[in-house]
Design a protein that fits this description.
about 0% strand; about 85% helix; about 350 residues; mainly alpha; single chain
């Protein structure tokens, strides 16, 4: 067998394996979602466990101590935070149909003002099509909110099971890593381990940094909307924090719900300018102040590639795909850089 044929067979085999893994992941997406949730929590908590181990605390006791701290935070959230959010969420579900209807009335009310005095039939057809599609869009948004509320019931099962998985992931981490390393080819073991450490530093820093950035954006957005008197400032602020995960388009998604509530509530163009200005300031601070301080080094990913990867992984894995798309892209970039340096060939 020639070297070219060998390379082709390996490439085809890799593609088939990746396809099989993706297909299996989609078929078991709920199980994969629970596993990813647990893995991310374990990944984020592991540095704290390691820090306690350096202070001569046994790993088991370190994990238990962290769980006790998290339990106290959970109890505080359940007693004081969760009831407030529950009331706000129920209020949103109850009032959203009326907001949607008001929005439709406002849009349909402005329909006649946008028609020209000597409009053609094509123009009128275009306007009717736009308003009809807007009506369908509002109906889908309303239905989507209730569907999301129904999906939360299943996610509660993940929240119950995840702490158990996280505990075992943290407890057996060293053994799992040692077992994986033992399966690596001896000649390339050090190179692959070095790659793993580099990917861990980049991806871990990004995930922890992004959580901090999202929290800051959520807090600032909530404060700004509360000061402007917009309805549901906390829920809109949380949505803004989650939207900041998305590169480039996150700021647009974060701004749309507050603009909708603001216009339906006040029916004023000035309030729209205020909301837009507030979010412009927040995302300016996020991009030029918060992120440079939180992220020690940039991943420097291609913007077009980043958007494509986020869309693709979001389509496959939903929220977790969106969250993990950029770290996965960064990991591929690190691996491809190593291949360009011909690190594997040098050790062969």
């Amino acid at each position: 067998m020639s070297p070219q044929q060998s390379v082709s067979i390996k490439a085809i085999t890799a593609i088939l394996v990746i396809t099989a893994v993706v297909a299996a992941g989609y078929a078991l997406r709920h199980t994969v979602s629970c596993f990813l949730l647990s893995f991310i929590f374990a990944y984020l908590l592991d540095p704290a466990v390691v820090a306690l181990e350096r202070r001569k605390v046994r790993r088991t006791y370190a994990i238990i101590l962290i769980y006790l701290i998290l339990a106290l935070i959970a109890v505080f959230s359940i007693i004081y935070v969760l009831p407030f959010l529950t009331v706000a969420w129920e209020s949103l579900l109850r009032d959203l149909p009326s907001y949607v209807q008001k929005g439709k009335d406002l849009i349909l009310g402005g329909k006649g003002q946008l028609q020209p005095a000597f409009g053609t039939e094509e123009w009128l057809w275009l306007m009717d099509t736009i308003w009809t599609n807007m009506d369908k869009l509002y109906e889908k948004i309303s239905a989507g909110v209730y569907a999301a509320a129904a999906n939360m019931v299943f996610n509660l099962f993940n929240l119950i099971l995840s702490p158990i998985l996280v505990f075992f992931m943290l407890f057996y981490k060293d053994g799992i890593i040692a077992e994986l390393v033992s399966w690596l080819p001896a000649r390339r073991r050090e190179t692959i381990c070095s790659l793993g450490r580099e990917i861990n530093a980049s991806v871990g820093g990004y995930i922890r940094g992004q959580l901090i950035v999202s929290l800051i954006v959520a807090v600032l957005s909530t404060i700004a909307l509360f000061l402007l008197g917009i309805d549901y400032p906390i829920l809109n602020g949380i949505f803004a924090g989650l939207s900041s995960i998305l590169p480039f388009i996150g700021v647009i998604l974060a701004t749309l719900p507050p603009l909708f509530f603001a216009y339906v509530q006040f029916q004023s163009g000035m309030v729209l300018l205020k909301v837009t200005a507030a979010f412009a300031v927040i995302y300016f601070l996020e991009g030029y102040v918060v992120k440079p301080l939180v992220f020690q080094e940039s991943m420097d990913l291609n913007p077009l590639l980043t958007i494509i990867v986020v869309m693709a992984f979001g389509e496959l894995l939903g929220f977790w795909g969106i969250l993990l798309a950029i770290p996965i892209a960064a990991a591929f970039k690190i691996v491809s850089a190593q291949l360009r340096r011909d690190g594997f060939a040098k050790e062969s």
